[in-house]
Structure formats: C-alpha cells, structure tokens
Sequence to fold (353 residues):
Amino acid sequence: MTLRDDLLRLFPRLRDLPMRAYVVGGAVRDLTLGAAPADVDVACLDPLACARALRRKVIRLGREEHLSAYRVVDGPHVYDFAALLDGSIDADLARRDFTINAMAVDLASAELLDPHDGRGDLARHLVRMIDASNFDDDPLRMLKAVRMAVRFGFEIDPETLDAIRIRAARIADVSVERVAYELTVIFSANVFRRAVSLLRETGLAIPLFGQPLDTEFHADDIPLAAALALLVDDAHAFAKRWRLSDAMIREMQTLQRLINVHSLLDLYDAGEPIARQLPPVLRALGRDDRLPFPDFAITPLLTGDEIAAIARIEAGPRVGVLKRALLKEELEGRITTREDAERFIGTFSPTSP
Fold:
C-alpha cells in the first residue's frame, strides 16, 4: 500500500479534486512515522476550485490575498488548500520550514517527493531547516523548531540552532496570538525540562521570557500554567504581553503565591484545579511535594448574618474575619458541626481582638 492509498483511505474526498494536486507537509510526515494525521494540507494551482470540488462549505483562511488558503471540514476530516508557491511543487517544498515537513505525495502519480531528505531526518530524529532565509520569511518557524523537537523527541541540528540564535530577537515581530499558540503546545507536552533547554539553546528564552531560563529544574510533568508560573517573575505582565486569558493570569499568580505559603486555607482559596498543580511545581523546584489537601467540598457552617448575630456585631470586615477563622477551623478538622461553629463564634465578643 502506498502513501497515496493511505491518504485516500483517511481523506476520501481527495478523490474529488479536479486538477493535479499534492498532499504536503504534516500528513506525509505523520504517515511516514506511522501515525494517522488529523488533517491534510493540499497544494494546487487553484486552491479555491479544489476546495469547492469537495461540495462542502468553504472557509477562507488568512486575510491577505497572497496568504489565502481554504478549509473544508467534512465530518472528522479537515482539508486545507493552498496555492503552489511559484506554481511549482519543487519551489513550494524549498520554501518550507524543515525537511521533515517538506515532503509531498503527488495524488496523480502516487510518487513521494522528498527533495530535502525528510525521510532521512525522520530516521535520524532530526529537525533540520531547509534554508536559513526561510526563517526570515516567517520568524515563528524558529519557535516551531522547538515545538517539533518537543513533540517528536527530536534534536535540532547544529546549523539550524545557529541560524535561530542569530535571528532569535525577531520572534518579537510575530503576532502574539501565533507565539502564544506555540508556547501553549510546547508547555503542554509534559517535557518541561527539554522545552526549557531548547529555548535556552536557541536563544529564544530572553526575547520570549525576558531572562535566560537558567534555573535548574527537577521534573517534567508540569501543567501549562504551572510551567509559565515557574518561568516568569511578573505573571500579569507576561500574560498581557502574549494575550493570555484572565483565567491563565489567575492560575499563574496563584501558583506563584502558593509556592512558599500553602496552608490548607491557602489551597482551599486557590480552588482544587489550581491547588492540584502545586505538587508538580514543588517537584520541579526540587522541594517536597507531599501536601495535605483540604476537603474542597467544605462550606462555612454559618452565614455572615448568622455570625454577626451570634457575635453581636454589625455587618462589616469583622464578620469576614470571623468567617475566615471558622472556615480554617473546619478545614483543619476541629469544627465539624453547626453547634461547634456556634460555640466557636460565641467565644468572640464585640471587643475581642
């Protein structure tokens, strides 16, 4: 069975294309590695005509005419169509980022086109550039080299590393959304130390994080927010720069606070999804990760109004202080019933400290 046979089986509407077309990039790479691709990229002379031939809704990708591509979603199948650069498959492959992404299958002849020895680099577990000038065309490719190495467990070849180091500062020229996507993928791969090492080696650490990332870490299974919390000093500034969500800002800041102060009440306040990320953070820092966790289902046994009535005080900050004190007692197991809670609050008079 040829690669074309596999592609037609996985993406049956490729049979409907009205002109000569080539499957390029990731799908060919993944099939060569023995993995099933999630989508397929097709290069042809008229990508809009190819997309329309699938007789499904066509979605335009990109805003500028020369960057336009078209997407068709057919159930679980995603087809992306783009124009052949310079009208030539050879020129198109020569303008791509890495050799392992510069292979193509000619759907007419079933020929595998591999002018830059992508198969050899797959066998060598190597991310290797085609031409350094291709990084100038799209500097995001420098960060993509890190993502590819992290994803596949590959090395980045020395000449490619040198080319990236020279241009590393240009990563700041790329749209923040595209950078944020790459960072999200890189730090969601559970190979934290490898990712940090590659960012240092490529010189991308300083333009991305404002520091060389030279801290020694001791664990890899670090969730995304936890990874970023370990790598930046000012979580708010970093998240705003790369337009991360408010939820991500909160996770990062909360985890940074919890590193040194993580009582049961602190963990309860953080909430279970965030609190459960603290042990990996502590492991990464070489610290004891054995933590007692609170019962996150616990709720205060008395309302604020009830506390005010029992303590004979007006509503205000003092009620909040007492409510927190009561919650702490509950979390630590010293108060388990409403009666216990009433007695506890009753010990406080309006003049108690």
Q: What stands out?
A: Residues 57 and 72 are 6 Å apart (CA to CA). Residues 125-210 form a domain with the Hydrophobic Seed Protein fold (CATH 1.10.110.30). The two ends are 81 Å apart (CA to CA). The chain has a mean pLDDT of 93.
